[in-house]
Automatic annotation (TrEMBL), chain A:
Residues 127-418 form the NADH:quinone oxidoreductase/Mrp antiporter transmembrane domain. It comes from Ammonicoccus fulvus. This is Monovalent cation/H+ antiporter subunit D family protein. Belongs to the CPA3 antiporters (TC 2.A.63) subunit D family. The chain crosses the membrane at residues 6-24, 33-51, 71-100, 107-126, 132-153, 165-188, 208-230, 271-291, 298-321, 368-386, 406-427, 448-466.
From TrEMBL, chain B:
Residues 158-168 have a biased composition (Basic and acidic residues). It is a multi-pass membrane protein. Keywords: Cell membrane, Membrane, Transmembrane, Transmembrane helix. Its main location: membrane. It is found in: Cell membrane. Coiled coil: none annotated. The chain crosses the membrane at residues 27-48, 68-92. Belongs to the CPA3 antiporters (TC 2.A.63) subunit C family. Residues 144-157 have a biased composition (Acidic residues). This is Cation:proton antiporter subunit C. InterPro entries: CPA3_antiporter_subunitC, NUOK/Mnh_C1-like. It comes from Ammonicoccus fulvus. It comes from the Bacteria.
Amino acid sequence: MIPAYALPLVAAWPILVGGVLIGLNRFRRVSQAVLVAALLVNLAVGVLLIATLHDGTVLAHQVGGWERPLAIVFAADLFGALMVTATGALTLISAWFAIVSGQADRAYFPAMVAILTGGVNGALLTGDLFNLFVFIEVMLLPSYALLVMAHRGRGQLMQVTSSRIYVTVNLLASTLLLAGIGLVYGVVGSVNLGDLAGAASASSEAAIAFTVVLLALAIKAAAFPVHGWLPRTYPFMSPAVSALFSGLHTKVAIFALFRLYAVVFDGDERFLWVGLVVFSLTMVFGVLGAIGENDARAILSFHMVSQIGYILAGLALFTPLGLAAGLFYLLHHMFVKASLFLSAGAVELAHGRHSLGEVSGLARREPLVAITFFIAALSLAGIPPFSGFVAKLGLIVAALDAGQVVLAIVAVVVSIFTILSMLKIWGAMFLGEPREAEPDAGQVPKRLILPALALAGVTVALGLGAEPLLALCRVAAAGLSDPTGYVEAVMGS
Amino acid sequence: MIALALGIGLLIGGGVFMILRRGLLRVIVGFVLLSHGVNLLIVSAGGTDRRDAALGEDLDPALVADPLPQAFVLTAIVIAFAITVFLLVLAITGEGDDDTRIELEGRELETPHLIDAEEVVVPPRRHRDPGGPAPTHPHPYLDWADDVDEIDDLDEASDARDAEGEAR
């Protein structure tokens, strides 16, 4: 069980480990071993947090023993605990892939991943708006370094260009976030989430200030129409880094959107239609972009935009059913998308090719890779018995339950298009005859595909045994639709 | 108050203008302006009429300046400084120029990020004489990256391109 005073440590200790790893940089194997050990402990902390909070209790700690309103608050509820666990698991598996693919041999890679973990944990556990900004920056700075380390052998130009796009877009969004927080402070006079509870639904000035914050988070979450940066950057990172980022960065922004809308707007029904429109369009434009692409990881990146629309549609419904479906979708998506990025990346690393049509007939040559990709692709499209089916079904049922028939229709149609674009990858890369023109057609080594297979295993497990996680998601969603417990804990009463 | 609002507007307007330029160096200047504008915004969010220092005991809340926005700005400045330094490093890696322009030769309608680097004609760099003594090390500020071999290769490649450009 995790005591409340340990919450700041959950964010702080990975950063300390990162500091030690910088010192250990010369000893590659040692620093990788330390990183894996630290990530295992981090995962265990997440599981312990879930065990502590599974009944819907909220932990909060005023840092440094200061009284409110001087103290900075750390607070954890089940939603935060689930996210800490899921991001921890994903970081561990991405680090595993990075180690077996040799990416982690690059200087300071383990240290950057450790600091990134600390930033993510902090952003998930903070109860303070300005601290959220600080932790998002703590998360982004090592990411920028990881991005520059990421090579894809596709030429220097696109790599540098894409990291420039990534850094400038994120910097712009961060500046906007900071401006929004400044406006919020000017209007409400506090940045403590407890003080801000219900502020935006009570006053329209505060609602405008918070809209700036939400817009900045929407850019970071890559929602339509501010999604354009994501498909232009993710395909050009190294496979390990794109899997890591796909599971962490946009998802932390989505987490913050859920949290802020629930607490600060108090789930205000007046603005929900904006979300319904924007996130339906996100689904549609993401999948249309995916169909138009010609490169495995570019298709996957556009899918991400589409799936982010699904997740946030759960928020836009803001019914207990819709929120629970959105949370389940969020967790499912993190594992499946990372699995797809890793298996596509493993093919890329082994065959040195990326565009569809340059590698073919993999299903016959490399059944393990094919099975891994097949499971994750079907899960993404929402075919039973995988977790994607549970997630999509939950969302469609929630939409119908809330009377949003259009949203349900869009969700069904978009998932048909998702299958279509997945078939594009499947048909070009896995079916067909192996090219005779590839004399040195190598095999994807088993060690490269195992991380993706592990994640595919997670989606099978979540699909067949969805009930425990669904139950947790329902408790977490109840905490969002009625945030009094969270607010009281943050206020220290 | 008016002066402050105008100042914020000018800084943010100038920042947006610079961010929309092509060269990364101009974009960086844009971000510096933008973050100054936002910092002023935060300071003004704490109120501008109270100016007394928040030090000592028996403070009058009606006179003392709000210390919280000042702490915010201090944090924001440190973060902006770190990222500016990083962006400056990014501006000099890769191609020897900070310009992001590429010549597509009639392929402008294709999605630019799908065009392979080898197909792209990089415009020859303008010859620039930085003046001063010759550098003793190709990239002293990139030593930390442990990638010096690669960077040397890149330098040689771009030097070769330069020589080609001059020959023409």
